[in-house]
Amino acid sequence: MRKLKRSARLVEMTQYLLARPHTLISLTAFADRYQSAKSSISEDLAIIKEVFEEEGIGQLHTLAGAAGGVKYIPTVRKEAALAVIREICRQLEQPERVLAGGYLYMTDMIGQPAIMSEVGRMFATAFAGREIDVIMTVETKGIPLAYATAMHLNLPVVIVRRDNKVTEGSAVSINYVSGSTKRIQTMSLARRALREQSRVLIIDDFLKAGGTVQGMIDLLAEFDATVAGVGVFVESGEVGAEERLFHDYVSLARLTHVDLKTKQTTVVPGNYFDD
Amino acid sequence: MRKLKRSARLVEMTQYLLARPHTLISLTAFADRYQSAKSSISEDLAIIKEVFEEEGIGQLHTLAGAAGGVKYIPTVRKEAALAVIREICRQLEQPERVLAGGYLYMTDMIGQPAIMSEVGRMFATAFAGREIDVIMTVETKGIPLAYATAMHLNLPVVIVRRDNKVTEGSAVSINYVSGSTKRIQTMSLARRALREQSRVLIIDDFLKAGGTVQGMIDLLAEFDATVAGVGVFVESGEVGAEERLFHDYVSLARLTHVDLKTKQTTVVPGNYFDD
């Protein structure tokens, strides 16, 4: 790269860091990239760090020493996240979203990458401190949420299939009981899709009794993998805690009430916002 | 927002623009946000524009006049894209990817958000000039590609299902013949998922004879919607042009040869890189 003035370098470094979350970049790499002294780079990083942290964009972790460098950790402040979730709750309460069986139509919302990116940033904030190797979800609506989270955490995604496709090679299948329909269903994952011993963050769109997530947890056992966390976009508050198959999860919104006759629903912020 | 020094403002503006591709932001909005004169904002934008364009990050379109403002258009240079695609081709040629039926295992690559983001930027560059309302794909492997593209183009995504889920409401289903297996399959889309008259960019992971994409095109007709473009990650060059159901598409890579016995494959850059 040609040598840049400080102002231009700040612009370039900002975009470079934003495109590489959770990635350690050494001062030497920056000094080489910008043909500048490490002392100048350090001054630039101090400016970027202050803006990122003051404006709630994320944290810039600086590691001192010979192996030192900087790592951008995308985060969102609780109050900013709450404002976003309140607007999402308001939209989810629209009566035309109520479907047969007490489900909510959320596909249009999940279809908006900008909203998914904000939601992914919340999950990335909630799970930033955990040791995670990979994010897992089950097709179809969990996929956009899983990728948005993975983008911010710099992690790969594995998608559990509801069938066993020819294009995946040999696969492990398990049966599980869908908590809401009480029917036996199948999910499968290609043998080569997940390394043994992986620490896995499970992300899904909707949590009722939890049969689907429990299915993924059972599937992990087949790979000698472990659960590093569970994040769901919306949980149904109509399921009592005693009915739920597991209890350690982060929810961003909670559907507390559905009246199928009047199509009135109540959606409130999830347990991520509990104090 | 508190008033920032120029250096800090450049950092904040850079992240603000990067998070809002294909969105017109007025000079007035920036001047209010940063409590600064429009002349200072214009100077900042000139610096950002120069860095974005010189370093191949994207374009900053400036619109003059009372309704004026600035719009960030993410792009990638052909030579930078070619370097990325060459590395992808190299990885796709690994013999262990060859599956029964001449398919390639690509799920691990599609599972990497950073690669998807680069691929999405290529599609966003290829289709930046078209009038598009929405991006469509079919589950499952097309979804990460569609979202990565949608993120850069600031467009919503609709996902065509291979079944008809209870959580979607009333849906339109069509039958199509999968070009490779010659079997009749079904795809469906919720009636409310797509507005009539929409201009739709179709994105998919793999194109063989084109039955799946043709199915999506037929589905669009049911919604009085039109095709604004077709983008595929990998096309199979083993299908002759005369066999292919349609011809106007952008491919990023082309699988030109598969030897099932030796598991040797050849993958080359796709027609996006043709002159």
Automatic annotation (TrEMBL), chains A, B:
Q: Which InterPro entries match?
A: PRTase-like (IPR029057), PRTase_dom (IPR000836), Pur/Pyrimidine_PRTase (IPR050118), PuR_N (IPR015265), PurR_Bsub (IPR010078), WH-like_DNA-bd_sf (IPR036388), WH_DNA-bd_sf (IPR036390)
Per UniProt, the keywords (alphabetical) are: DNA-binding, Transcription, Transcription regulation
Q: Which Pfam families match?
A: Pribosyltran, PuR_N
- The lineage's top-level taxon is Bacteria
The encoding gene is txxe 1791-purR
Native organism:
Thermobacillus xylanilyticus
Pinpoint the Bacterial purine repressor N-terminal domain residues. 5-74
Subunit structure, interactors included: Homodimer.
Which family does the similarity line name? Answer: Belongs to the purine/pyrimidine phosphoribosyltransferase family. PurR subfamily.
Give residue ranges for domain Phosphoribosyltransferase: 108-252
Q: What is this protein called?
A: Pur operon repressor PurR
Where in this chain does the entry annotate a coiled-coil region? none
